[in-house]
Design brief:
single chain; mainly beta; 16-stranded antiparallel β-barrel; 4 helices; 17 strands; about 10% helix; globular
């Protein structure tokens, strides 16, 4: 059952060793290596145990307790000058068939703060960036900063983390203004979508194809108001972009022709255009946190197909989706907290009765912090629908067929994580 640990590569093992042996703070780490005080080291590790009664969730989890999800990360930042910052993070994520544990650059950028005058601050970042949308996207990689072991999958979709979490090269501009007892921050990011997720191809085609996706362009804007240091947070995030598809040699797609039926045609090109509108609200007190987020999405799939006898045909498929969740956290002692979440979503509002395109997730969880570095978590999910299950873990004879999965399934997870 614990055989997955045998395949963790040396680079990931090095990250793990750094995490276990790390000093208690980033400043102590810098001092240990005789580096400037403006150099900071931080990192995290997380190990998850997962069980499902039906379907597989990031590993062979159906009917067994799987240890196939491991998260590791280490980052460094250097304040070269009060106005200049260089920062980078490397992560390793092993998670079933979706992620193989290779060490990747999660972000690496140079930041410039030309204006930092009391109530006003203006910043620019250039490089490989995290995408600032919703309330949790920038910090969701770190187990200790997530509200649960997993977040709402309708908005923070783990099966396609790279696509919705970062851009391989982009520009981010941020302006923040203090207004009375609060602050208003405006973020604008431009870059290219990341298309390295194995599940992207399987979601679109249901099988592996010889072609490849490539990011073309994307823009994201987020407006976030923070009242009294986080007592109330209200945000609006808007994103849109385009992903292209370059077909492989010998690739064939089905083409429906009126009066003839379905024939196999060669794809000439393809692209996916997407848009998201996320509304976020959060209320925090010393003992309670209440969060509500919703995402209205639009996805258009365009393709141009050619058949010898029929010529060229253009087709378009449009899907309008809705996802939302309501979440409450109760910190009933300084070191213990409980979680309740109701998460509901439709990938296509025109097909609400199709359980392969919907999911309703009822979650209960508990967390314990023995100290500031360690976190022990447990969660139970009762799920109706399969829209956010990872295809790579649910292939049957080389094909992902959602209709062959179990509509109602339960998910139990335990996780231990550490920060330094």
């Amino acid at each position: 059952m614990f055989a997955p640990f045998q395949s963790v590569n040396l680079s990931a093992a090095a990250l793990l060793a750094m995490a276990v042996a790390a000093p208690a703070s980033g400043q102590e780490a810098a001092q240990a290596f005789a580096l400037p005080e403006t150099v900071q080291f931080h990192g995290f590790l997380g190990q998850r145990l997962t069980h499902t009664d039906h379907n597989d969730f990031f590993g062979r989890t159906e009917g067994r307790l799987s240890a196939e999800t491991t998260e590791l990360g280490a980052n460094v930042s250097w304040r070269l000058h009060p106005a200049w910052l260089v920062s980078a993070q490397a992560t390793s994520r092993r998670s079933g068939e979706s992620y193989d544990g290779d060490v990747e650059v999660d972000y690496s950028f140079i930041g410039w703060t030309p204006v930092d005058a009391g109530d006003t601050r203006v910043m620019a970042r250039l490089g490989q960036l995290k995408l600032p949308y919703g309330l949790s996207n920038e910090t969701r990689d770190t187990p200790g900063t997530r509200q649960g072991i997993i977040l709402s999958q309708g908005i923070y979709f783990d099966a396609m983390r790279a696509y919705n979490q970062k851009t391989p090269m982009g520009l981010n501009l941020e302006a923040e203004q203090t207004i009375g007892d609060g602050s208003l921050a405006l973020n604008w990011t431009r870059g290219k979508p990341t298309t390295s997720d194995k599940n992207a191809e399987l979601y679109v085609f249901g099988r592996e194809e010889p072609g490849r996706f490539h990011g073309k362009n994307a823009q994201l804007v987020r407006l976030l108001y923070d009242h009294r240091g986080g007592l109330v947070r209200i945000g609006l995030s808007l994103a849109k972009g385009t992903i292209g598809y370059a077909p492989g040699t010998g690739e064939l797609w089905p083409l429906a022709v009126p009066g003839i039926g379905t024939v196999q045609a060669s794809p000439l090109d393809g692209r996916i255009e997407f848009a998201h509108r996320i509304v976020s609200a959060q209320y925090n007190t010393e003992r309670w946190s209440l969060t509500l987020e919703s995402n209205r999405s639009q996805t258009n799939l365009f393709s141009t197909l050619f058949h010898q006898a029929l010529g060229t045909h253009a087709s378009e498929v449009r899907k309008d989706g809705t996802h939302w969740y309501l979440e409450g956290i109760w910190r009933f002692t300084p070191r213990w907290e409980a979680l309740l979440r109701y998460d509901k979503g439709y990938d296509d509002r025109a097909a609400k009765s199709d359980w392969t395109k919907t999911s309703i997730d009822r979650t209960i969880g508990i967390r314990h912090r023995p100290d500031s570095r360690w976190l022990l978590s447990g969660e139970f999910h009762a799920v109706d629908g399969v829209s956010w299950l990872p295809p790579a873990d649910n292939m049957r004879n080389g094909v992902f067929s959602p209709g062959a999965l179990s509509r109602r399934w339960n998910l139990l997870m335990f996780q231990v994580s550490r920060q330094f």
